[in-house]
Amino acid sequence: MLKKFFLVVCGSFVGVFLALLFFTLTAVIASFIIFGSMSSSNGATKIEKNSIMYVNLEGVLNERDATGNASLMSFMSNQGPSQSLSTLIKSLKIAKDEEKIKGIYLDCRGMASGMSSLYELREALKDFKASKKFIYAFGDEGIMQSDYYLASVADSIFINPEGMVDVHGLASATPYYKKLMDKVGIEMQVVRVGTFKSAVEPFMLEEMSPANREQQEHYLGSLWSVISSDIAKSRGIDPTKFVALTDSVMATMSAKDLKANKLVDRLCYRSEFEDKLRKLTDVDMKDDLKLVSPDELVLSADDPMGTGKEVIAVLYADGEIFSGEESGGGLPGINGMNQGGIYSEDMADLIRELQYDDDIKALVLRVNSPGGSAFGSEEIWKALEDFKAAGKPFAVSMSDYAASGGYYISSGAQRIFAEPLTITGSIGIFGMIPNASNFINNTLGVKIEEVSTGPNAIAGATYKPLTDQQRNALQGMVNRGYDTFTNRCAQGRKLSQDSIKVIGEGRVWDAVTAHEIGLVDELGGLESAIKWVAKQAKIKDGDYSVVDYPNQEMSFFDMLTSMQGMKLENDMRNRMGMFYTYYEQLQAILGRDRILCMMEPIEINF
Prior knowledge:
single chain; alpha/beta; 7-stranded parallel beta sheet; 20% strand; 22 helices; 2 domains; 2-enoyl-CoA Hydratase, Chain A, domain 1
């Protein structure tokens, strides 16, 4: 028996060792392949005459480029294709002025993205059209709503004769867990400030409150007004008629009806579409099109954001805000809002480094965050105030979300920029502690005996309910946090604290309305923010370089740890489908700070 035990243990060790060896060798080989192709591209990327910029609308649209180990991580974790907003926008600027690029081929395959990111990319496509070069969009099986929003800018939209277009409007879906919690015997003990602070509603109510419904109807209506008007204007369709078409289940319309209603321009197969591109670019019918990717365009030219000596830092605050420092293995922001995160100590330290770096003349904080830890938000806010006090210009560029804690860290900026489809505001705060005493005692049949030196020695323990004294103390903490939050916003926005409290109350706003009520200074994107801080720093156009922070590189062993976690998450996401989002929300409760400034996890169907 003992001999068998040792054989099993040894066999396990050998198996683990061989698995690690295989994994490491695979990673090393993959890195040689990736970096080898990158270096060869760097040295030999040349744009041929009569080329077309090929934009493959597939996968996920991220904020930043995935470079170095980040690219290797995406490759090894089998996450599928991803796009970089920053690369796409840079490449469009280059393509606009590059004589060898004759036009753009938008291949609509279904790209997942936040709405504000799509708006920013769409504006860049509109800017490209000033070059008088063509933009053609093609959809095979169908063109989804997010792709169609971009494709509507095109000179012509081509679709397979059996294809479809699915534009349907916006809808939000918020799961409510109260009945589930009651069934398993767990009570969420909630304290909050703000009538509209609805992040806690799913745990204390069985259905949406009137206040939450009011705010969601307002911002969804405003966002859809921008999107539908943009599409209708680009396609030359009456806005009222276009909305009626979207309400008629557009996805069921035949391709012929789509053309008759001016939603597409031509029905053809991909081969026929690409033959048209060959004629446009003088390419022989038997030869391949000269397609150039956005990455290749960026590698072929100087940085369109400038190559001057003076440096403007763009600091990406991407994801949920956590207090403290990252324990290792993560790569903040590389996989979007729900991955990675913003760790307050790491972020504050980096801001201080930028403050004392004489080469850094100004800072743009690029925020894509629904908030998180109230204390973590305060730490980041203080570091940004110190940066500003050093006399360097500081602006904020809001991406898809800059809400609650995301607005907290933005509030002190000298100027706040947001796109019309940005979601922001949610100035509110809450605390939430689960009481699992019923579940532990009755469902599990476990009795916990306690010995303590005082009534509050184990305050907030999940195996017993809060006392009135403890609940009042928690409410006091939340009230003080809200007072601090609104005071920070009042200082930064140069408004009275009372006026901030009126438009606060935890209410989520679309950026257009936020601009009207003073929470946002200017409707514009990242480039607008960069140009503004450059002007404030008295730097002429072209005399500065833009450098992105934080550095996305990581150690090899941290990369392996992250890849293992990413693979596990991908497997669970694939197995659980739509339920993974709800699982993620429930799981996160146990790992968050007690006091939070965070918007509710709304899933907008775009």
